[in-house]
Amino acid sequence: MDADGLRSNDYEEYNRRTTDYGNGRIEIAAYHCPRLRHTGSGRMPSGGKAETSDKAQEERTRQQIYAIRRRIKGYALSNSFRWFVTLTFDPEKVNSSDYETAKSTLLKWCRRMRDRHERFDYLLIPELHKSGAVHFHGLLGNVPADFAEAVNAKTGRPIVRHNRQVYNLTEWEYGFSDCEEIESPERAASYITKYVTTALLTDKEMYNKKRYFNSQGLAKPVVVFSMDDNTDLNSFTPNFGIIETDTDGRNVIGTGIYNLTADPETGTLSQTDDSYLMTAKTERRKSRTFETMKKV
Q1: Ordered alpha helix ranges (H), the chain
Q2: Domains of the chain
Q3: Which tens digit of pLDDT belongs to each residue from 132-146?
């Protein structure tokens, strides 16, 4: 048993994490040096106290952000979402400065949408403004709701952003909506996770409250941890990699993340994602840009 009251068999060593999103998308994270994951039920001994320094709290927040972002990414890529939406509140209709009021209004609306359309898949994240008001960003499934083309109130012309039509969800009756059809699930997943910020986790209004909301029945990815020689990945290029220096002074890919596609019949893996980024690890465990092989 170690100093934290955990047994050695509470841990599992791995150098590969495979995430299967259930629809042909496979993400493999390969590590040059094996890592440990906690698998047991060991807990800190009675009377023990967690470190309360600013540095320790910052690290806990960082780990929490990472865990929540991975769960949100898992939902985003394991399900067939069609719309990226932003839902804001009209202050004359809803007091969006009160988080509980805004949250309750949102979730009641989601239940009504489910009852109205029989199925309503959603994944929504709150964003807090400095003013104290809250609105929500998220993903919606292929719900047969009324998405009307947004038009400029002054000119009457359609609102187009990045050569794409913007829509309003007319069934959002509490304020304003901004909706775009999703072209790339990967980009939508990356974008939505960015709303899980340090501010969201540390804001006093959010203490002990849920940081995201999802409909019941959403698919989840299957994650497998293993020890492999990883030579089967030599034919692929890491879509994201961190360059480290090993004990012999050689530059190696300390962490390589591969976005792959599995053939539905044979299971054979191929690489169709052609966005690549390599970074170099610094002493403070932060990364600076080392080489951009192709812009993401």
Answers
A1: 54-78, 99-117, 185-193, 198-202
A2: 10-38+221-294 (no CATH), 80-214 (3.30.70)
A3: 789 999 999 999 999
